[in-house]
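Predict both folds.
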Amino acid sequence: MSERVNDQDLSPESKAFKYGLDVIDKTEPLIADYIRGELENQRTQLKLIASENYASPAVLLAMGNWFSDKYAEGTPGHRFYAGCEFVDKVEVLASEHAKELFDAEYAYVQPHSGIDANLVAFWALLAYRVEAPFLQDKEVRHVNDLNDGDWATLRKAFGNQRMIGMSLDAGGHLTHGFRPNISGKLFDQKSYGVDPDTECLDYANIKLLAEEFRPMIIVAGYSAYPRKVNFAKMREIADSIDALLMVDMAHFSGLVAGKVFTGDFDPIPHAHIVTSTTHKSLRGPRGGIVLSNEKGLNEHIDKGCPMVLGGPLANIMAAKAVAFAEAKTASFQAYAQQVVDNALALAEGIEKRGGRLVTGGTENHLVLVDVRSFGLTGRQAESALEESGVIVNRNSIPFDPNGAWYTSGIRLGTPALTSLGMDCDDMGEVADIICSTLSSTEPSQTKTGEISKAKFTLDQSFIAQSNGRCNKLLSMNQLYPNVNIEGSI
């Protein structure tokens, strides 16, 4: 172990994390070692996972405290447990910050994750559109007041509702109504895709699908679509068939908060309900949030617990409040704009070096590369890049011939590298590392002599050289430069 470090030489952040690890060491040293190892990995790899970022030390520290010990089912001032005075204050502050940040009338900050936020939204919409009118018709105030026959009728009505959302290979998400996910078991779902030539959304075709299928909910939003979405047009389509527009902005909420996506491309003024994670481009803790400007809907969102959520995680809500406060600053707006500028520079760098970009470019934080232009599958590209020090994820592309496991694409995102301080010039070097790796990777053969979709060959000397280039970039753009956890206290 390194020599003892003098406390006076440490930053406040270093002291906080160092002492914390020292405490963990005394109970389960392996966990302390794993935490140190994760930090080392993140400091020595180029993180281009579009859904990942680096939370600030303040956000990280806000998650580890006594709020984690509290049960607090209910809402501020209406808990099912006593002793929640400061939990109430935390939740109110987080909600107020979120409302101001996104210019929303209502913010629900309890969801534990993106899928939880979407479940809250789905059931709030069902309560708003199906349950509330049914109760009014039966002249009762609560579902517990229904007789068994009426309750059976209402339950059946819940399961008969329809939804449309973006198809998975076009860039949609499992939680938008697909069968392996609970959302697909809850709704009768159909997907809208993209134009086969432009690979971009075709709003006329979405409108035709909506008119034919007549869904109750239209879901907009994406996890792997490198373009903006016109939410004003999506609301027009929803209004034309009396549907409800739900937007999942988990991936691009930081660009909304940072005022990069405004007007027709800001979902808040146009959607009935908006969900998001609080990590990704928003740079907060892992968690979810639900926003709305629809007055009649808010009371149903507020029942997320016990509707689909367990007790709220007060420590995570505290971290959300810190992250929202950070996102209200001018520096965060500059960061959000740089995320998009960096994505554009990365896309241009890859295209210049022979890579084919899905949709021909990007307008947001992510770039989708068709790696068939390098003779590879997405799985091979992902693994080869990891060996070279670049962390990405394989991803389906529109009309993908390799399916969802092997895929034909990789998804790249710039939020994390931008958090490190990298700029457009750095993206040129990143693009060169990526394309050099992919160009140097060769598919292997299977035992039967066929071309493998998973195995590959990549020269070890090239791997060492590529990792050296990554480390040089990272040495000039350090992760948590004020955090030193070497040695012991």
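Second protein follows, with its predicted structure tokens after the sequence.
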Amino acid sequence: MLGQRKGQTEQAGGVQLIQEQPGDWWEVEALYDLCFAPGREALSSYRLRDDVDPVAELCLVARDLDDILGGVIRYWPVRIGDAAVLLLGPIAVHPTRQGEGLGAVLMGASLEKAASLGWDRVLLVGDAPYYARFGFSKLAAVQMPPPTNPDRVLGLALSEGAWAGVTGQVTKA
């Protein structure tokens, strides 16, 4: 039952945000398969995730009151030089729940939690016009492994000046 899940973080808009648990893995992966093109795991961002544990406290699932999965978000530790960075992604919302603001709820809650845990900066590969509303902007001095479009490499500072002097190649943590 939903009430028995550990790690519940928030209830908003008829959904509860809960820390992803090992038993959620198959359902979460099925949602990613549904929402993203075949071959998603061939993307360069996945190479940064290979053999690296996600930041568990920030990996959230959104479930409705019937325990049906509506959305998910994951974060991974990476490095740029000496700087610790969170790599956001993937984030997905079930097609039947899109347009309800569930993605924004997942983003807001997880970014707030990341800041409270002491993370200073977040990186993602995505559509700049969409992610700008959350404060993300292009990182011209940061390079993702190829083949990544440099215009899609975006960052968000969770503390003032967090990206100052952070330049170079993104690598595994």
